[in-house]
Every structure is written in structure tokens, then in C-alpha cells.
Amino acid sequence: MLNQHTIEIIKSTVPVLQVHGKTITTAFYGMLFENHPELLNIFNHANQRQGKQQTALANAVLAAAVNIDQLENILPVVKQIAEKHRALGVLPEHYPIVGETLLAAISQVLGDAATPEIIDAWAQAYGVIADAFIGVEADMYQKVADAPGGWSGFRNFVVTQKIKESELITSFYLSPQDRGAISSYLPGQYITLRVQPEGEEYTHIRHYSLSAAPGQSYYRITVKREDGAVNKPSGVVSTYLHEAVDVGTVLEVNAPAGDFTLDQSIDTPVVLISGGVGLTPMVSMLESLATEQPSRKVTYIHAAINERLHAMKGLIEELNQSHPLLTSYVCYESPAEGDTFDKSGYIDLPWLQKVVEHDSDFYFCGPTPFMSTIFKALQEWKIPQERIHFEFFGPAGSLEE
């Protein structure tokens, strides 16, 4: 436990972190990879280049400082990050390296303002926070390994089917090479792939949402090929999966993880809203609702550019026809001639109010601007926060302005 004096010192650094947090975390990652390049086998290089990881870490450090006297307030965030750490293979021995580097980054950015007293206080605080993560993650590792069909670390899976779902999106069906049982999962969770495309110095690890209902003998992921855009490089792993992986390819897979999951303990109406490849966890939820809660009213809304880029449309139509309490809608931003859809342009609140019930639980996923629009619409409609659920692809961000 931290003494009151140490707590006060940490809290006194909050204004500094608000101003210099991202500068500190940017320096942190630079030092970390210079001194420990082997950790590039764990971290997402694209998120580093785009600054997403630096921002996420800065927000996490700031939250820890604000709540240093009540760390239970950030326990949900700790568990969320720990889920990803477990999926990536972060181990207790990594934490001293991170702590040492973080203190060095604080000293470098703040200069003389980083007094020995401040550095010592942060060293103590980091020790407490690291212990919390290590404890939570140890429990997660144990539960995953002990679960029926569970395993530790990465396990070899074979691609048994590769199905093109749209011009840019393809589904991969993965079965264990050892033909053993596999862990079940909750609708909305993801698995983690570790690959090393030809010519790449380091391995690349990516999380991909499971796009089928649990209970199968295989995992299905549905991946968009990221071709790159302004300020966004092409996806190394997605390109590798689309161009180099085929039926028979062996991929390393870590067991399912994630805290963005469908609440199946209730029977209130549920609305699933997806944009682009954000449909992946939604389809898993939708299939699960259709089979396990057929008496629950479900509305599924999907937004895409047009029909050419709309994945899994046939699957959703089949589910819609066979389940009377399921209603689905399609919104195309720029529909082409001959496309079939329910709304053109963008999803907005007046339209949402016409097609879904206010007392529903809302789940949504997609590009950040899309999610921000949905989130603001639901806030304007005064949907209670506890009935709004969403997930970022990649490091957690913010939908608030």
C-alpha cells in the first residue's frame, strides 16, 4: 500500500500528465524498443506508427494517477487491458522492464521537474499497479489453460476454409492441427494470431473477432484487407492473410479473450449496429441470439459503402427469414445502381428512432468516426450508459469530444 505522502505526490503530477502524457509515452516506446527490440515481437507496429498505442498508454497512466488512492475505480480498465496482455503473451518478467523504461521517459521529458521524490513516488506507484496486473493476468492464464479445450500460449491451427465475403473481406475457418478440443468463448470475443510474413524481421500479433456463434469445432474470423490510406499504412497481417494464407496453411492462435461480450442473462430487446468489418463480433452475437435466445427481439443494422463492400449479406438474410423476432436493415453510404438497401447515406437518430425501441440494449462496432456518430445519437436519445456497449479495434480510444 502507498502512504499518504506518496499518494499526494502522484496526484500532484496529474496536471503535468494531462499536458505531457503522450510525449512521455512516445519517449517510453522509443526507449523500450531501442533497449529491448525483442518486444517488437509482441507490440502492434501499425498502432505504434499511428500513435494509437502512445495515446492509450498516456490515458491509462493518467487514469492511474487520478485514481491512485482508489485503484478499485480503474479495475474494469485493468481487466480490459489484462485480457489483451494475456492474449499477447505478456508475462511477469516484462513488468520490471516497462517500469524502468517508464521512469526513464518521465525523467527525460520532465527534466529537472522530475525530482528524485517524484521519481521515487512513481516507482512505488508503478510497483503497486504492476502487481495488480500480474495478479489479474495470472488468474486469466490459469483459467484459460484449465478450461475445456483450453491451452497456454500459442497453438497451431490449420486453415480449413477461406471464403471471400466481399471485395475486401474474407473469412478464414481455423481448426486445431492436433485435432483436439478447442475453448469455447462468449459472443463478441476475439482470438489472437501470431504470424511472421516473409521478409518481416519480427513476428506480428493481431486480435481478430470471432465471427461465428460458439460451440463449433472450428474458429471463424472475418478479415478486411487493409490497403492503406492517407496517414494509415497497409495492413501487414491482413495483407498476408489475404494474399499468402490458403487452405492448409498453419497459423499460431492464442485462446479466445475480450470483455466486449453479449449479455445473455437478460431478455430485453437488443440492437446490434455495425459499420464495415465491425460486423464480425455482431455476427457472432446475432447467430448466438438466433440459436440460444430465439424469443428475444433483435434488430441488426449494418452500414457499408455499397453492396460490393457488404460482407455476409446472404448469411444475415437467411437468419432474418428463419427467425421471426429478428429484423435487419442495411444502410449504404454510396449505393450503386441495382443495390438493395433500406437507407442511403448515414445512420442518424431520427431514422434509428423509427426502427428500434428505446428500451433496447445497444451494441455497436466499426470505424471510430462511425462509432462516435452512433454513440452521440444514443446519448442524444438519452439511452442509459449501462445499455450502451461498444468495442474499438485496437487500443481503446474515446468517443467523447
TrEMBL record:
UniProt KW Heme keyword: yes
Site positions per UniProt: Involved in heme-bound ligand stabilization and O-O bond activation: 29
UniProt-annotated binding residues for FAD: 190, 392-395
GO biological process: cellular response to nitrosative stress; nitric oxide catabolic process; response to toxic substance
MF annotations from Gene Ontology: FAD binding; heme binding; metal ion binding; nitric oxide dioxygenase NAD(P)H activity; oxygen binding; oxygen carrier activity
E.C. number: 1.14.12.17
Catalytic reaction(s) noted: 2 nitric oxide + NADPH + 2 O2 = 2 nitrate + NADP(+) + H(+); 2 nitric oxide + NADH + 2 O2 = 2 nitrate + NAD(+) + H(+)
Keyword annotations: Detoxification, Dioxygenase, FAD, Flavoprotein, Heme, Iron, Metal-binding, NAD, NADP, Oxidoreductase, Oxygen transport, Transport
Cofactor(s) it depends on: FAD; heme b
One matching Pfam family: NAD_binding_1
Site note Influences the redox potential of the prosthetic heme and FAD groups, residues: 84, 391
Gene3D superfamilies according to UniProt: Globins, Nucleotide-binding domain of ferredoxin-NADP reductase (FNR) module, Translation factors
Binding positions for NADP(+) per the UniProt entry: 276-281
Residues annotated as domain FAD-binding FR-type: 152-263
Residue span(s) of domain Globin: 1-138
Residues bound to heme b: 85
Chain positions covered by the region annotation Reductase: 149-401
Free-text comment about domains: Consists of two distinct domains; an N-terminal heme-containing oxygen-binding domain and a C-terminal reductase domain with binding sites for FAD and NAD(P)H.
Function, in words: Is involved in NO detoxification in an aerobic process, termed nitric oxide dioxygenase (NOD) reaction that utilizes O(2) and NAD(P)H to convert NO to nitrate, which protects the bacterium from various noxious nitrogen compounds. Therefore, plays a central role in the inducible response to nitrosative stress.
Alphabetical list of HAMAP family matching this protein: Hmp
Name the record gives this protein: Flavohemoprotein
Organism: Paenibacillus glacialis
